[in-house]
Amino acid sequence: MSIKFNIQDTTESEIFYGSYVIYILGGHHIKTNPDFYVQIVNLETNEDIELREFYLKGRDFKCGKKAIKFYAFDINNYGKFKISVHNYNDIILKDSILEFFSFPFNIPNIVMSKVLGRSRRNRNLDDIEILIV
Questions:
Q1: Which residues touch 15 (CB under 8 Å, ≥6 apart)?
Q2: How many angstroms separate the Cα of 60 from the Cα of each of 28, 34, 63, 103, 108?
Q3: Side-chain-facing half-sphere of 61: CA atoms under 13 Å
Q4: b/e for 49-76, b at 16 or more Cβ within 10 A?
Q5: Is pLDDT of 101 > 80?
Q6: Cβ(19)–Cβ(52) below 8 Å
Q7: Mean pLDDT, all residues of the chain
Q8: Does the pLDDT at position 99 exceed 70?
Q9: 3-class DSSP string for 86-97
Q10: What is the pLDDT of residue 121?
Q11: pLDDT over 80 at 13, yes or no
């Protein structure tokens, strides 16, 4: 089972018992403000699901897009859940992780990203998606 939606949307979905991972789709380099979070609420009990943030965020490809492994959570009981993303307006998501590395590695990466151009542009909010698998 997977759930995919735009970062600006709120969705309701049935989620079964198990462990899940939340990916942010659209790039391999992300910067968020400290107030950024994903909220998952059980509609029957009105309880929030506790999310665990990955401090070493893995990079991968999911659904044919670049993806960042961001949160993990467990569901103990089947139910219908409301999933929403909060404080996403100032998220910075870029194509390349090259900007992540520090000196002395960043000089060749900055030159290459200037030549290629793509990795330096921020993604629009319309292009950023959330994937739960």
A1: 1, 3, 75, 78, 79, 80, 81, 132
A2: 8, 23, 10, 24, 23
A3: 3
A4: bebeeeeebeeeebeebbbbbbbebebe
A5: no
A6: no
A7: 87
A8: no
A9: ECCCCCEEECCC
A10: 65
A11: yes
Residue 64 C-alpha from the chain's centroid: 15
The two tokens of residue 45 are 């009990």
Query: In angstroms, how far is the first alpha carbon of the chain from the final one?
Result: 6
Output the six-digit token pair for 20. Answer: 């899940």
Q: Tell me the CATH architecture of domain 3-92+124-132.
A: Sandwich (2.60)
Tokens 């139910």 sit at which residue?
79
Q: What size, in residues, is the chain?
A: 133
Q: Contact, 98 vs 39, CB < 8 A?
A: no
Cβ(27)–Cβ(93) under 8 Å? yes
pLDDT level of residue 82 (50, 70, 90 thresholds): very high
Helices assigned H by DSSP within 4-131: 106-116
Q: How many CB atoms lie within 10 A of CB 123?
A: 20
